[in-house]
Design brief:
This is Glycosyltransferase involved in cell wall bisynthesis. It comes from Brevinema andersonii. The protein has 367 residues and is of the alpha/beta class. The protein is built from 13 helices and 14 strands. The chain folds into two domains: 190 residues, 3-Layer(aba) Sandwich (Rossmann fold), CATH 3.40.50.2000; 170 residues, Rossmann fold (3-Layer(aba) Sandwich), CATH 3.40.50. 40% of the residues lie in helices and 18% in strands.
C-alpha cells in the first residue's frame, strides 16, 4: 500500500502528546511493509521534510490553516501520486477530508471530543467557536470508517450523529514499560502536560490528604505546561514544598524509571481519549488512582489496575490510597503484579496489525 496520513502535529512537535504517539506507532509498523507519508503543520526549528521511523514527514502548513493547506495540497499534488488510502487523524478539529477526497478511501482516527474542556484552555469566544467547529467538522465523516480508542469515545461520536462505521481499537503499550523495579515506599507520581484540563491541581490536593496521614510520602510531577506556576503556588499554599517535586520534561527512559519506582500513579484528569499513561503505569506494576471519567474508565478498571472515584471527589479517592498504603509489603506486591498482568493485554504489535487489516479491508470494499 501507498499510504498518506494527516495530523496537525507530528511526533517531534514540542507539544506532541498521546495522539501523536498513537499515530507514530501505527505508521512505524505500516512503514515496515508499505510506503507511508505523514503530512502535518510547520514548526519552527524543525526541518520541513524528515524521515522518521521508516516513514516520511512533510511539514507543509500553518496550524490555523491546515484544513485549507491540506485540501489545496491534495487537489494540486497528492491526488496525482497514486495513494491507495488516506489516514485522517482527527486529533484537533477534523480537516473534513471526505468533502474533497472522493477517489481514494479514507480511514479516520478519533480520540475524543474536547467539548467543555476547551473553555479551560481558550478564551470564551474562541472556545465556543472551536467547540462548534469540532462537532460540525465531524459530520463530514458520517460515512467514513472511524477507528477510535475507547468505548467512551465511540459513545461521544454516536451522540453527535449515527456514524456509519465506528471500530474500537485501544492504544497499546511499549514492551519497555513492563519492568519490575523495586518500589520506593510512599512515592506517588503524576506524568503529563501541565494544562488546566489535566487537573494536576486535584492530584496535589489529593496528595495533601495523603501526606497528612502518611508523612513519609512524596509526590513527583513530571511534565511542562502553562499551569506550572499556578501549581507551584498551590503547593506553597498547602505547605508541601518539601514533599512535592516538579521535574519538568523527562525522557522516555526517565518516565519508565519514575513509573516503575512509584507506589501509586495519580491521574486526576477531567477527560481523556483513552489514558495511555495509566496503562504505562500499570505495565510498570503501579496502580492508578483517578476519576471515573471518559477515557479513564476504559483504561482503568476498578480493583484491576487501579481505583476510581467520581470526578472531583478527592476524599473518596483518598480512602482507596489510605487502604492501599496500610497493606503490608507482600499484599502490595500481590496488587502490583495483578496490575501488570492486566496491562499485558494491550500489545502494540497486535493492535497495529489489526489497524493494517482495517486499511486493507477498507481498500477492498472501496473498489
Amino acid at each position: 500500500m501507498k499510504i498518506l496520513a494527516a495530523n496537525w502535529r507530528d511526533p517531534l512537535h514540542p507539544e506532541a502528546g498521546g495522539a501523536e504517539v498513537h499515530l507514530d506507532k501505527i505508521l512505524s509498523y505500516l512503514a515496515l511493509n508499505h510506503e507511508v507519508v505523514l503530512v502535518t503543520t510547520r514548526t519552527s526549528g524543525i526541518p520541513e521534510e524528515y524521515q522518521y521511523h521508516g516513514y516520511q514527514i512533510l511539514r507543509l502548513g500553518h496550524p490555523f490553516l491546515f484544513h485549507y493547506t491540506f485540501k489545496k495540497l491534495w487537489q494540486q499534488r497528492f491526488q496525482h501520486e497514486s495513494f491507495d488510502i488516506v489516514i485522517d487523524d482527527i486529533s484537533k478539529i477534523g480537516i473534513s477530508s471526505p468533502q474533497f477526497i472522493h477517489n481514494v478511501p479514507i480511514v479516520a482516527i478519533f480520540h475524543h471530543l474536547h467539548g467543555h474542556t476547551l473553555y479551560q484552555l481558550l478564551p470564551f469566544p474562541l472556545a465556543y467557536y472551536v467547540a462548534w467547529a469540532e462537532k460540525n467538522a465531524l459530520k463530514s465523516y458520517r460515512y467514513t470508517p472511524i477507528v477510535t480508542v475507547s468505548p467512551s469515545s465511540k459513545d461521544e461520536l454516536m451522540k453527535i450523529l449515527p456514524f456509519n462505521k465506528v471500530i474500537v481499537l485501544p492504544n497499546g503499550i511499549d514492551d519497555n514499560f513492563f519492568v519490575n523495579n523495586d518500589k520506593t515506599p510512599g512515592l506517588f507520581c503524576s506524568v503529563g502536560r501541565l494544562t488546566k484540563a489535566k487537573r494536576i491541581d486535584l492530584s496535589i490536593k489529593l496528595f495533601s490528604l495523603v501526606n497528612r496521614q502518611f508523612p513519609y510520602t512524596e509526590l513527583v510531577i513530571a511534565g511542562k505546561g502553562k499551569e506550572e506556576s499556578h501549581l507551584k503556588q498551590l503547593v506553597k499554599k498547602l505547605n508541601l514544598e518539601n514533599k512535592v517535586k516538579f521535574l519538568g520534561f523527562i525522557s522516555e527512559a526517565e518516565k519508565i524509571e519514575l513509573l516503575s519506582k512509584a507506589e501509586g500513579f495519580l491521574f486526576t484528569t477531567e477527560k481523556e481519549g483513552w489514558g495511555i499513561t495509566a496503562l504505562e503505569a500499570s505495565a510498570a506494576r503501579t496502580p492508578v488512582f483517578g476519576f471515573s471519567v471518559a477515557g479513564i474508565k476504559d483504561s482503568v478498571i476498578n480493583n484491576k489496575n487501579g481505583f476510581l472515584a467520581p470526578f472531583g471527589d478527592i476524599e473518596n479517592l483518598y480512602k482507596y490510597i489510605e487502604i492501599y498504603l496500610s497493606f503490608d509489603v507482600a499484599k502490595k506486591k500481590e496488587i502490583q503484579q495483578s496490575v501488570q498482568l492486566f496491562a499485558k493485554q494491550f500489545d502494540w504489535t497486535s493492535i497495529t496489525k489489526q489497524f493494517e487489516t482495517i486499511l486493507l479491508k477498507t481498500i477492498s470494499e472501496f473498489h
